[in-house]
């Protein structure tokens, strides 16, 4: 925190922009609503009654509108970061909320929003330096709507992200649903990506793509328009370990699931996976779950 006692707030700025994972979102556009809070001191402006001594909220509104109208991003996370970056040229502590009230979600909802808070002393974290991408394995699945098209769209969205590159993509696999819920079979695939994002931010990008594709989280192991799981993440040749409420790495149940292992083994056959008994070659782990129904499409 900067210690500034005062705030200038711009709330409910509605601007039409062309941001989203889907091509129709970029083509047709939609309204975005932005709230900006600038932590600053208004003492000099109050003492002098001079607009030159404060942040001009009219100019701020035009600057934010120009960012929304003049750029195209897949994710509102990226849009929020761009707005925050600009605001940090005006003060050293900002909060930005980007609302997407017309997000393409096949459920009744009131709002989707992303909030970022940034200071000049704590920039957005980066995982690795330039030219040192980490490697992650992602497992994707869908069983609602046109599942194959949704998976294609999701992989394309990952590839478009400026800090993610899809290095390998598996074939499609048809698998029986997991968890005992009565539902249609899933289509699954796996991708290896290179990224300069840290694991938590990569997961956030994946969740943003899920939301854009209409993902809801109402029933565990239930039907999914799109599911993207971060299975493993290796940086500087070292497999990363995480045990937080938001993210466990490596994925603790990956070795139990043929729909995760089969695509992974196809694109990275030399992988060693973590199991309850210790590290095992992925071919051995896959053989151990051979009783699970899975067919290459």
Automatic annotation (TrEMBL):
Source organism superkingdom: Bacteria
The 7,8-dihydro-6-hydroxymethylpterin-pyrophosphokinase domain, residue ranges: 220-231
PROSITE patterns for this protein: HPPK (PS00794)
Keyword Protein biosynthesis: no
Matches recorded under Gene3D superfamilies: 3.30.1130.10, 7,8-Dihydro-6-hydroxymethylpterin-pyrophosphokinase HPPK
TM stretches of this protein: none
Entry keyword set: ATP-binding, Folate biosynthesis, Kinase, Lyase, Nucleotide-binding, Transferase
Catalysis: reaction(s): 6-hydroxymethyl-7,8-dihydropterin + ATP = (7,8-dihydropterin-6-yl)methyl diphosphate + AMP + H(+); 7,8-dihydroneopterin = 6-hydroxymethyl-7,8-dihydropterin + glycolaldehyde
Pathway note: Cofactor biosynthesis; tetrahydrofolate biosynthesis; 2-amino-4-hydroxy-6-hydroxymethyl-7,8-dihydropteridine diphosphate from 7,8-dihydroneopterin triphosphate: step 4/4; Cofactor biosynthesis; tetrahydrofolate biosynthesis; 2-amino-4-hydroxy-6-hydroxymethyl-7,8-dihydropteridine diphosphate from 7,8-dihydroneopterin triphosphate: step 3/4
SMART domains xref list: FolB (SM00905)
E.C. code: 4.1.2.25, 2.7.6.3
Keyword Zinc-finger applies: no
Sequence similarity: In the N-terminal section; belongs to the DHNA family.
Function in brief: Catalyzes the conversion of 7,8-dihydroneopterin to 6-hydroxymethyl-7,8-dihydropterin.
Name of this protein: Bifunctional folate synthesis protein
